[in-house]
Design brief:
By secondary structure, this protein is α/β, with parallel strands linked by helices. Helices cover about 35% and strands about 10% of the residues. It is built from 14 helices and ten strands. The protein has a ten-stranded mixed sheet, with helices on both faces. β6, α11 and β7 form a beta-alpha-beta unit. α2 packs across α4 and α8 crosses α10. The longest helix is centred in the middle third of the chain and has 18 residues. The radius of gyration is 20 Å and the shape is globular. The two termini are about 25 Å apart. The relative contact order is 0.15. Bound molecules: iron/sulfur cluster (2 copies). One iron/sulfur cluster binds next to loops.
Length: about 375
């Protein structure tokens, strides 16, 4: 399979690589919801920072993408789907969170907490996808010491710090989250605490019990990582994956979802990595559109060879340093998953809080190096195409 060779990678979805079902909410409906927030603005208990943000948003004429330039706040199609699923009394929180998520990395603002945290319930995976660090044996072989599961106690401590300080938690990183035996307990522990709870899974472990645990949880977005429309391409990319089994699992998921959880507001996304030109969003939409509310491709980065990729000349700062932090299964905190062997990591959640790490001198040094065009001095940033 001939892989694409991107020279630079920006985050998010490009319009040609995303299909959003039923995205026909009118600007009038959006305005009505915004006006409701305006009416209760004086009664919201917000920090000064959040008050400033919400006022800026409410002062805009509209918040729909296409009407805005890059540095203004706006919601893209997939975000509008989320916007319409959020209860009205929490919508201001959603807007503030998306503002921080979309604009803090662009404006290079560092808040008390990152706009998003990725938690890794496990670094173990049953697949070896060709674009993934799991394909690097110096990482995924048991003997190398990188594999393990997060203890439930540590997970609870992480969530206790994040509740009320952050809205977006994603269960995903270097492994398949559903392989952690406490995964269902983790979902339960997050109940009612976040507005952007998301999980990424390869769908291989789905069974009736797990499907009920997911659908009865407070997860807002369920992402099934699938990159192809047919068995041959799927199994070439998702090594160890069995296409027929995935189809069966997703049909079971879909049946249970529609028969027993039809009132749920969860969003289901099929998301693939676009690693070759044969992957077409229209074909993906045809194959998976009956299961998913959103079908999308994210841009490819050669994660499978992070430490061997050629050193490049990119000087643009990497958005990750203003957007996210990753908490590995053992408590290690890392700026990104491109650096899956944690060369950039200096801290563990076991002895420092997330707030302290995010605002540490070391993190500010990383940010400053990027801002001054010196990302080439850092490994593996020197070899990374993420911007
Ligand atoms: S991409 Fe996901 S499913 Fe594939 S090997 Fe990596 S962690 Fe596992
Ligand atoms: S390795 Fe550096 S440039 Fe690449 S994603 Fe991580 S922080 Fe960003």
């Amino acid at each position: 399979m001939k892989k694409v060779k991107p020279l630079i990678r920006s985050k998010g979805f490009s319009d040609e690589n995303i299909f959003v079902k039923n995205s026909n909410n009118t600007e009038l409906e959006i305005k009505k919801k915004i006006n409701k927030i305006k009416e209760k603005l004086d009664f919201l208990n917000l920090s000064n920072e959040d008050q400033k943000i919400i006022k800026e948003i409410l002062n805009q004429n509209d918040i729909v993408k296409n009407n805005h330039n890059n540095d203004e706040f706006c919601l893209a199609g997939h975000e509008l789907v989320e916007f319409f699923k959020i209860p009205e009394n929490k919508l201001h929180r959603y807007l503030i969170y998306r503002y921080k998520y979309n604009l803090y990395p662009k404006k290079k603002i560092v808040g008390d907490y990152p706009p998003c945290i990725q938690i890794e319930p496990t670094s173990i995976c049953n697949y070896r996808c060709i674009m993934c660090y799991q394909a690097d044996k110096s990482f995924s072989s048991k003997s190398k010491g990188f594999m393990g599961n997060m203890e439930f106690e540590m997970f609870k401590n992480v969530i206790d710090e994040l509740e009320g300080n952050i809205e977006a938690i994603t269960f995903a990183s270097r492994g398949e989250p559903t392989l952690n035996k406490y995964f269902a307990d983790m979902l339960k522990y997050c109940e009612g605490k976040f507005l952007g709870l998301k999980m990424n899974t390869n769908a291989s472990m789905l069974n009736e019990k797990l499907i009920h645990e997911i659908l009865s949880s407070d997860i807002q977005t369920i992402v099934f990582s699938i990159d192809a429309k047919d068995k041959e391409s799927y199994e070439k990319i998702r090594v160890n994956g069995k296409f027929d089994k995935i189809i069966k699992n997703l049909e079971l998921f879909n049946n249970i979802r529609h028969s027993q959880y039809s009132k749920n507001k969860q969003i289901v996304r099929i998301s693939g990595v676009k690693i070759n030109e044969d992957q077409k969003i229209d074909e993906m939409k045809k194959q998976w559109g009956n299961i998913a509310d959103i079908v999308a491709f994210t841009n490819y980065t050669p994660w499978e060879s992070s430490y061997e990729n050629e050193i490049n000349k990119i000087v643009k700062p990497c958005s990750e340093l203003w957007l996210r932090m990753f908490i590995w299964y053992d408590g290690k905190v890392n700026p990104c998953d491109y650096d899956y062997k944690s060369e950039l990591s200096k801290f563990s959640f076991k002895n420092k809080s997330i707030k302290e790490i995010w605002n540490s001198d070391y993190y500010n040094f990383l940010r400053m190096s990027h801002l001054e065009g010196k990302r080439g001095d850092l490994e593996p940033c020197a070899r990374c195409i993420n911007c």
